[in-house]
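hiii so my PI (J.) wants the whole complex modelled not just the main chain, which honestly fair. so below is everything: two entries, each one labled with what it is. i double checked the lines twice but i was tired so who knows lol
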Amino acid sequence: MSRPILYAFHVSSCSWRVRIALAHKKIEHDIRVVNIVNRESRSPEYMSKVNPAGQIPALEVNGNVIAESLAILEYLEEVYPQKPLLPKEAIERAKVREICELIATGIQPLQNPKVAARHSTETEKRLEWTEYYINRGFIALEKILNTTSANGKYCYGDSLTTADCVLVPQVFNAIARFKLDMTPYPKIMSIYNSLMKLEEVKLGHPDNKLS
Amino acid sequence: MSRPILYAFHVSSCSWRVRIALAHKKIEHDIRVVNIVNRESRSPEYMSKVNPAGQIPALEVNGNVIAESLAILEYLEEVYPQKPLLPKEAIERAKVREICELIATGIQPLQNPKVAARHSTETEKRLEWTEYYINRGFIALEKILNTTSANGKYCYGDSLTTADCVLVPQVFNAIARFKLDMTPYPKIMSIYNSLMKLEEVKLGHPDNKLS
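here's the output for the full assembly
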């Protein structure tokens, strides 16, 4: 198997999801920086050679490209089973995937700054839009995490899972970018704080510029 | 194992995804109708007993509830391996999941009528919003399907996969609800037309009221 190549950028929250998994599983890989701020990910070259959807992350393995971060996480779990990021029982795996999907479909796409910018040119209206969708998702997430991890450190008890890979960048966005009041979400914050202590999480922090 | 209970509604596109899989795998189940039009899915009872996110579908198995349609599809695939909806090889499974996720994160949440209604009270602006996001996703999808299924009937060659479960309701929405011009998407349309001939797909059609 060839060494995987990750197409990523340091401020991309969906890249961070995958970078946590790669670091956790200690998978050696190369990185190709794709600048999403200057729209390099929408360039004809990137879209024709890597990902027709014009997005990162994308993972190239043996000449094939996998796009979409949750699909990449599942692939890594299947091909690199060491330090698993999914529990063993089907029902437990389902609950972890439910958390991933709640964030990946119910929050992330709607709080995306480009989507908010399409909604309105006014800063205040954009922020109101973003806050609405993050809060709507976090209210549900807080309840779900109180059942999947009543006394646990992470999203599903004390083992790191793909749900944690997806949670971290979303909470980071809420706090650092949108200054969201996290008081109503003590469980989410407690898990986030535990996760931010881990080396595999810190590595992909948006402050660490990729080169 | 107890008989699964699916919480669903006939006009819910995400319920349709799961209903295709249940029908394809011939999994006996019960249905509980949750009316999303009159906001039954947002009732305190449903949100406290079934899904804190206030959404359908949800699948109850042995007293546990799994929410989020892709998580349910993965669960069904693991627990009911008959008539598989994912290919055998990891890279092929990844490509199928990539298609699922492209639609489930990149199109469906953004074209949701409630999101469009939050964007604007004007019908024309809502439609413009919806069309923008469906077209953006379909442009990428058309290219991807031309590689994953250059000569195939369905999204990944000639075998039904979870990608088909997710494609059908999205194309149906585009055509029936939003009257989108599908001329630029011959591959998507050819796959959709093949799929709409299947009994397991027709069963969950929004015209077939659940009771």
